[in-house]
Amino acid sequence: MASARKQVQQLARQLFRLSVIDGEVSAERVAGVLAYVEKNRPAHPVAVLRAYQRLISAEVARSRAVVDHAGPLAAGVLEAISAAMTRRYGRRITSSARRNDALIAGVRVRVGDDVYESSVAGQLEQLARAV
Amino acid sequence: MSSVLEQIEQQIAKLSSKAVKKNTGVIRTVADGVAKIEGLSEVMYNEMVQFPGGAIGIALNLEEDEVGCVVLGDISKLKEGDEVQTTGRLLSVPVGKALLGRTVDALGNAVDGKGPIAAKEFFPVEKIAPGIIVRKSVSQPLFTGIMAIDSMIPIGRGQRELIIGDRGTGKTTIAIDTIINQAKINKVGLASGDPKFRPVYSIYVAVGQKNSNIVRTIAALEAAGALEYTIIVAAPAADNPANQYLAPYSGAAMGEWFMENGMDALIVYDDLSKHAVAYRQISLILKRPSGREAYPGDVFYLHSRLLERSARLDGKGSLTALPIIETLAGDVSAYIPTNVISITDGQIFLETDLFNQGIRPAVSVGLSVSRVGSAAQIKATKQVGGKLKGELAQFRELAAFAQFGSDLDAKTKAQLDRGSRIVELFKQPAFNPLPIELQVAVLFAMQRGFFDPVDVKKVVAAATSMKQFFTTRKDALLTEIRTKAALDKDLEAKLQAACEEWKPTFSA
């Protein structure tokens, strides 16, 4: 059981490495990998594809800044965030905006696992934890 | 003026709008107190992580695409998909004198219903043990109040002495006696106003014990007036294994505070067998490779890194450790007992047979040892009890042979008589530690043959009568022994005279 899971993880990682060019996920490579998996079905194909999907989505998230905002977002903010994040992480990062009224005010930027909190809701939460 | 205010306002605005960076992850599975988390790419080993709802966890397994965390607290509210974030901090517990007299859990939260603890300082639970340079040799005694131990297996401040034996042989009793004795010594020492007097504070860590046992221990300490010098860290059997795993380290952190601040402390780990079992449980849930008896490969490191934190520091204080190990059918060669024996500076081995024969404390003189030796004894004890261990060992050997033959020469018979009297003399009731000066007086009387005319069965009564005689009528002499800590000719003469005075008061 444990070794089967390990094999699934190993294969998923191999497929993932094949799908990345210069630190970015390539759509053509992903299509190629999927076609290969369909043709040469591995043991536990669903588990392999799920693990592969997780790795790809984590990698995609690393090069995408999701900007949650409560109020209106000023023009040029997304570009500025993209530029700042690209500088910080040393790889090309694109930004996309998402409205989230629960933040009350301010923004929250998520790049992969990292969250940059600059919202009122976040500050209130921090305050509540400190009290 | 208004421009200055504007400047300050701008500065505040800048600070308050500064983004806070968090590293996050998402719970993939939660089971048996362990959460597997996806993400947390920047988490460090042993780092505290924050779960939603206030629960915290410790990152113990850092794998390629997931992190294994033990959850400290209520896991029933956690679910798949919940966000977890790193804190950048190691787990810390409150430390200081505010904890004395309190019962806390593995995280340092009060569980005794006496209100919150007003601790000003926090120490990390995991800390690297002091190195060789900062340490000092163990040379100051730590009296347990148990005559068999103080005279034959002395313990020094900063030593690690293992208490090992089967269940129900009196391991915890020895530890509690030692804590009570420290409290008694502290009271006398602090009342004397001696500026050189160094009190010993105690920490009792209960791991995997029944709540009723912990309550009984607390009651015994309270009844003896020792609770005010003691911190109880409780991780009972009903607690989750993560808390049981952490409790000894939390206790060590509390003890380290005393040591770092130039004070002396004693810590009792009761017991490390259950601690190893809790760690095995966590490791198996984390799917770490298991080894002998299903323990993980780092179970030795689990205990060595804990016990190495006990030390005597140069220019500072000391932390003495009394770890307890429970054996099965007296097997000291099992995995965990041999590990801890090799880490500690000696062991007090308690035998079931001796216990059942009524010899309590059931210390096996042959298998018990203190590697610090007489360096941790006062001169007076060495003078009266230096040869005791050898005499008792000889007695055991002769007693074994005497079972086969009926004709014994006078010398052998005398040795046997003396040995059986020493055994009787070392019998001591629980929670009744003896001050060292009284031990010296009784051993002096034994060496000078004052118990020889007493029937073996009445030696315990004779010893009790002698202790009463000395405490009620020879208090000045006892104080002199305590302050001089060595027997000179004058003191020996006084002791001899006192024993002569006692002799007619006891009718054998």
| Average pLDDT reading of chain A | 89
Report the strand count of chain B: 16
Order of helices and strands of chain A: HEEHHEHEEEH
**Per DSSP, what share of the residues of chain A sits in E-state strands of 2 or more residues?**
15-25%
- The count of DSSP E runs of length 2 or more, i.e. the number of strands of chain A, is 6
* Largest interface, Cβ cutoff 8 Å: A-B, 20 and 20 residues
Low-pLDDT runs of 5+ residues of chain B are none
Q: Strands of the biggest beta sheet of chain B: in what spatial order?
A: 8-12-11-13-14-10-15-16
Pairing-aware structural class of the strands and helices of chain A? alpha+beta
How would a crystallographer describe the biggest sheet of chain B?
8 strands, mixed
Which of globular, elongated, flat, extended, rod-shaped describes the shape of chain B?
elongated
- List the total number of helices of chain B: 16
Provide the structure class of chain B.
alpha/beta
Strand order in space, largest sheet of chain A: 4-3-5-6
Instruction: Indicate the low-confidence ranges of chain A by residue numbers.
Output: none
- Helicity range of chain A: 55-70%
How many H/I helices of chain A?
5
Strand content of chain B: 15-25%
Offer a few descriptive terms.
heterodimer, A: about 130 residues, alpha+beta, four-stranded mixed sheet, two-stranded antiparallel sheet, 6 strands, B: about 500 residues, alpha/beta, eight-stranded mixed sheet, about 40% helix, elongated
